[in-house]
Amino acid sequence: MKNKHRQRVKTRHIILGVMCLMYFISYIDRVNIAVAGPLIRQEMGLTSMQLGLVFSAFAYPYAVMQIIGGWLADRFGPKLVLTVLSLIWGAATLATGFAGSIAVLVLMRIALGIGEGGAFPTATRAFTYWMPVHERGFAQGITHSFARLGGAVTPPLVLAVVAASGWREAFILLGIASLAWTVLYLFVFTNSPDENRRVTPEETAEIGYRKGECARARTHATPWRKLIHRMWLVTFVDFCYGWLLWVYLTWLPSYLKESRGFDLKHLALFTALPLLAGVIGDTLGGVISDRIYRLTGRLRLARCSILVVGMGGSLACLVPMINAPSPIAAVWFLTASFFFLEITNPVLWTLPLDIAGKYAGTAGGMMNTGFGVAGMVSPVAFGYLIERTGSYNVPFTISAGLLAVGAFAALFIDTSKTVEADEAREAQSREEMGVPAFAGGAGNWHK
């Protein structure tokens, strides 16, 4: 009876909750610089271009670490890799509170990018052996909704700490919170169900996990060519999505203050409002995608339809925002645009699981490299175009164009063409030809 009571909450859902907390904290650490940006610029005398450089410094190592972090998670397991990465980004956040120059700010943002760069691909890899196929969209949706919730609470949270103590104290407190999460993760997470004493045979069957599968997967050589072939289009769509997301994460407070005239008191509310809409969008995108799959059994329809509707809807709301005469109307258009944009996010993160299977860490890193590259270019390009034109209209128009391109490209993503299917066809072809096929382990051959 005691064991039955304990199992009312499934182990995979406890792990999902811990991962939600990670996404929440990591996003606060990521976007707090945007909220503190106007105060940092005033204290250090930075130009818009210099502030854009500080914003974008995070994105360069973030992009580089996507594939590296995902591959490390595939090879050494997500528990070890995410522990190390969270220690790095927690320490970087803490140290930012002691920065005294633009050089130190940039350096700490680079360290933060290294730590967080591999975190989401590693988390995606963690779900490979913990979430059944029909729950993957929900898992990616709920975790990323917590990321957006983190972004939404950052303005009032950071501004409250700033008002009480200062912007430096905000970074110090957030760094401590990140390091505390690492301790929790170490106690709760295991790489697979067969390593967790709490998991029952019934839950293992629900997940669809086969004993020893995680350990066997580590012996497989990474099929880089197949992964690139299957994931490049997803990466491109993620770039188009990421361009506008970076605008929200970096320039939204400055846009509302400088272009729409909101004071500091209203800035927290109207910066948080679009990001709160993203919380709802992330959750709905994953839930609706899973629902379509259950009803139709057509995985491609379940994923691609959400991508097209999400990016198309975001475009339809962003265009009228650019010339909206009322600041309040602009905020509502931005909110609606971000809601639709975030519907696509859980699907983008589910595609590496659908397409790459046991290589989901590496594939997730490939996919999110598009987001990282967008982060390199978008904040700096935004700052440059603002200085050149004296207006936010041109950079927002470019963002709208990329949404249109991304929605069109999403039509050609095919979830039925998986890496594992490619490997199975090659193995069958070798067997038909009577050629020994390499099974992926050290000296592990079969006919």
Automatic annotation (TrEMBL):
Listed under GO cellular component are: plasma membrane
Record Gene3D superfamilies: MFS general substrate transporter like domains (1.20.1250.20)
Gene Ontology molecular function terms on file: transmembrane transporter activity
Q: Please report the record's description of how this protein sits within the membrane.
A: Multi-pass membrane protein
Q: Which UniProt keywords apply?
A: Cell membrane, Membrane, Transmembrane, Transmembrane helix
Q: Where is the Major facilitator superfamily (MFS) profile domain?
A: 15-418
> Where is it localised?
Cell membrane
Q: Which residues cross the membrane?
A: 12-28, 48-73, 80-108, 170-188, 231-249, 269-289, 301-322, 328-351, 363-386, 392-413
Which PANTHER family does the record associate with it?
FI19708P1-RELATED (PTHR11662:SF399), SOLUTE CARRIER FAMILY 17 (PTHR11662)
What name does UniProt use for this protein? Answer: Major facilitator superfamily MFS_1
Upper classification of the organism? Bacteria, Pseudomonadati, Pseudomonadota, Betaproteobacteria, Burkholderiales
